[in-house]
Amino acid sequence: MERSVVLVKPDGLQRGVVGEVIHRFERKGLRLSGIKMISLDDALLDEWYAHHKDKSFFPSLKEYMKTAPVVAMLWEGVDAVSTVRKLIGVTKAREAEAGTVRGDFAMSQQYNLIHASENKEIAQKEEKLMFLPSEVFSWEKTDYKHIYLKEELF
Ligand code: CMP
Q1: What is the pTM of this model?
Q2: CA of 110 to the centre of ligand 1 (A)
Q3: Helix and strand tally (H, E) in the chain?
Q4: Which residues carry out catalysis?
């Protein structure tokens, strides 16, 4: 099964949406496989946002990501990466669909509350950057039998 890395970013902690995010993902039927609070430093941010390093907003993005800790989570499910992206909404929060996390709670392109892995390859890279193997939990979610048809599980 796929896992997506989600960060509730510093503005998400300031705005008090950590519980809301967890609540939404739990209700969707995703399985929480890891969670921790962490302060991001320059070394980790340089790797995390390597694909943005030439963008004009990169210095501002790094400063913002160091203003408070983040809550890092691993959410697992069938097609979890694309499912989580749909739940969070597009980057520019004021254009995000109502019903998404950004669409319901944010307005900014930078202060958009939450990060989620863009694709499967990036999800695997981000999991390794953010979590030790001992911080990733595999547990039997007994209500999967009510969430998925048996044939959908692999
Ligand atoms: P995310 O898409 O999760 O990861 C890259 C982050 O950079 C993005 O969220 C925003 O927080 C930030 N970002 C993206 N585009 C801009 C922009 N044009 N100006 C400022 N910040 C941005």
Answers
A1: 0.97
A2: 5
A3: 8, 4
A4: 115
Phi, psi of 125 (to 5 degrees): -65, -45
The structure tokens listed for 133 are 């193997």
For the CA of 116, the nearest atom of ligand 1: 3
Pocket of ligand 1 (CB under 6 A): 52, 57, 61, 91, 109-110, 112, 115
Go through the domains of the chain in sequence order and give each one's CATH number: 2-39+70-148 (3.30.70.141)
- For residue 22 the two structure tokens come to 């967890």
Whole-number Å distance between alpha carbons of 79 and 74:
13
* CA–CA dist 69, 37 (Å, integer): 6
Q: Which of 56, 61, 92 to mutate to test the pocket of ligand 1 (most atoms within 8 A of CB)?
A: 61
The predicted-structure confidence for 89-144, as pLDDT tens digits, reads as follows: 999 999 999 999 999 999 999 999 999 999 999 999 999 999 999 999 999 999 99
Interacting residues of 75 by C-beta distance below 8 A, sequence separation 6+: 3, 4, 6, 25, 30, 31, 32, 33, 84
Residue 62's pLDDT band (cuts 50, 70, 90):
very high
